[in-house]
Fold:
Amino acid sequence: MSLELTTAQKAEVLIQALPYIQQYTDRIIVVKYGGNAMINENLKKAVMGDIVLLSLIGIKVVLVHGGGPEISDMLKRVNKKSEFVNGLRVTDTETAEIVQMVLSGKINKSLVGLIGNIGGKAIGLSGMDDHLIEAKILDERLGYVGEITNVNPEPILDLLSMGYIPVISTVGTDKDGNVYNINADTAAARIAGTLKAESLISMTDIRGILRNKDDDSTLISTIQVSEAPQLMREGIISGGMIPKVECCIEAIRRGVKKVFIIDGRVPHSILIEVLTDEGVGTMFT
Structure:
């Protein structure tokens, strides 16, 4: 059964959102975009619609995206096997070129086009543009997987000042022009910290941090950064969620006020998290 709102109810929703709009107006929000929300076309349109809406009401949105599944698909097409060490893709020179092509070309430009088609203003950036993301080799075993050494915020701030939504692909470079594959969670956290963003929103394929991973009703809505190590020791934060949480903690330590892990599979989860009392995920403060 669909829920139809009356005109009065719609007005009430907008009034309830007003304090949040006032809080975030002219502030920077960084959205890390990936997972199922990037693969499902209907969800993709909903996410881009949310971002355009936030931009139109005066919030400065920076979109940072990954694209692991599409990189894997392209490698498969060229008969190149994907290898992973501790969850990170082994990246030789050829793989780095494919990462650059898929992230900075195909995915980045399709997101920019989608935002434009629904009335937003976006410009795509790669971490290689004006040395936005500088990197060095993280681990020799991984090849050109990058550890970020510096973020240059100027290109992002310039676009924001002109009313554009920067859409950033997480490819890095060094002074020799090498191409680095950068983890999108890591890049988003570092970019948000450098920009001293009001919030970082990380879209994932789970509800948030659950006390019982099989029970959505055990969602932990708020976590203090100091509580995270204990939750890791207890196994509540485990597996692939550990590096995501470490990125959240890194962002907070670098000056981001609030970090959210939200379920990108929920339509309009960004709006629910930013503009309502309830929220939909886990907030780190």
